[in-house]
From TrEMBL:
GO terms for molecular function: endopeptidase activity. One of its GO terms (biological process) is CAAX-box protein maturation. Residues 80-100 are annotated as: Disordered. Keywords: Membrane, Transmembrane, Transmembrane helix. The chain crosses the membrane at residues 139-158, 219-241, 261-283, 304-337. It comes from Panicum hallii var. hallii. GO terms for cellular component: chloroplast. The keyword Lipid metabolism does not apply. Residues 269-355 form the CAAX prenyl protease 2/Lysostaphin resistance protein A-like domain. This is CAAX prenyl protease 2/Lysostaphin resistance protein A-like domain-containing protein. PANTHER family: CAAX AMINO TERMINAL PROTEASE, CAAX AMINO TERMINAL PROTEASE FAMILY PROTEIN.
Length: 363
């Protein structure tokens, strides 16, 4: 009989005749149910196995476990699968509990993480310092020479050169006065940089972190946050003006700018815009944030250094009506510089503030 005939659906047939074996043969045909050692018999022929399945599959007397222990192996695989499913259910329940705990206490953990991060930033901000190779004597020397040079250039050098060229400041037009202010500011800035170069020359090469200009980093975000405080600076300016009476006599620099704005001279306004948004921020930030603020960290914590440099920045403008807003503005620019360690950040913030004031005057 071929095996293909048994793999196809069987046709109706009469029941197979049961073969009766004698007791010795019947006992030998049944598999032993004991667990002791036994000899493995040779596998029957394929035709006999198929005939055995087809004829005796419904016979209750035929054992369900074959001689090659296939049933025991199936039971073992079933138990292993059950253990794996139980383990997966346990892991799933554990993940569900973790997710539930995160939903219930995740916000608290996030708040704690933000709090720790903020405390770390504040502590680092308070303890960070620059490596200052010079002493207070050099700091005082640079600042005194800078103030003296600032006054000497603006009051004597530039007027003398203008007079030697046949010009008088009183008779200059709006454009002439704007050009005069631009040349004065450029000369004062170059003189200040020359003083720094001369006084700090013996300490070169400078330690890392000094007078850094870097286009990379997140300093633009710090500048944007600083710009949000401009309305508060403007409010302090109005409060300061109300507390300090206006001194008799006009302020020369401000009146020249206002006269040019009233006259609507585009060339004069463009020259003044260059003065207040380009020249002044560059050399002022180099002196006050680039040199003075880091130098003071040799003797005081960083927050006090920021405040002291901001006070010096306000006093250098020689205007009692602008002391309060300039101190606050100096603190903001000092904080931005200390956080970014980048002079471009404080220069840009300074330029934006001066531009804000200039546009306010044009209204």
């Amino acid at each position: 009989m071929s095996s293909a005939s048994f793999l196809s659906p069987p046709a109706p047939r009469p029941p197979c005749a049961r073969v009766r074996l004698s007791p010795p043969f019947a006992a030998a045909a049944r598999p032993s149910l004991g667990f002791g050692p036994r000899s493995r018999r040779a596998a029957p022929a394929k035709e006999w196995r198929l005939w055995h399945v087809s004829c005796f599959r419904n016979d209750p007397d035929v054992p369900t476990t074959s001689d090659d222990d296939g049933g025991f192996k199936y039971v073992a695989r079933s138990e292993s699968s059950s253990a794996a499913e139980a383990k997966e259910e346990e892991v799933g329940s554990s993940n569900g509990e973790q997710e539930q705990n995160f939903k219930e206490g995740g916000w608290f953990l996030q708040v704690q993480k933000i709090k720790e991060n903020l405390q770390g930033r504040i502590l680092r901000f308070q303890t960070e310092r620059w490596t200052v190779p010079w002493t207070g004597q050099t700091i005082a020397q640079v600042m005194i020479l800078w103030i003296a040079t600032f006054w000497f250039v603006g009051s004597w050098v530039v007027p003398f050169l203008a007079h030697a060229a046949g010009f008088s400041k009183e008779t200059l037009t709006h454009r002439g006065q704007a050009l005069y202010s631009l040349l004065t500011d450029i000369t004062e800035g170059l003189a200040g940089i020359a003083i720094l170069h001369q006084c700090l020359g013996r300490f070169r090469p400078l330690p890392p972190g000094w007078f850094e200009f870097n286009l990379k980093g997140r300093w633009l975000l710090d500048v944007a946050l600083g710009c949000l405080l401009f309305p508060l600076v403007n409010l302090l300016s109005h409060i300061n003006i109300s507390l300090v009476p206006m001194s008799p006599g006009p302020v020369v620099g401000v009146s020249s700018v206002e006269q040019s704005i009233v006259a609507r001279d585009p060339v004069a306004m463009a020259l003044y815009a260059v003065v207040v948004t380009v020249c002044a921020p560059i050399w002022e930030e180099i002196v006050f944030r680039g040199f003075l603020l880091p130098s003071l960290t040799r003797y005081m914590p960083l927050p006090w250094s920021i405040l002291a440099s901001a006070a010096a920045f306000a006093l250098a403008h020689f205007n009692a009506q602008r002391v309060m807003p300039l101190i606050f503005l100096g603190v903001v620019m000092g904080g931005v510089f200390a956080r970014s360690r980048n002079l471009l950040a404080s220069m840009l913030l300074h330029s934006l503030w001066n531009g804000f004031v200039f546009l306010d005057l044009m209204k």
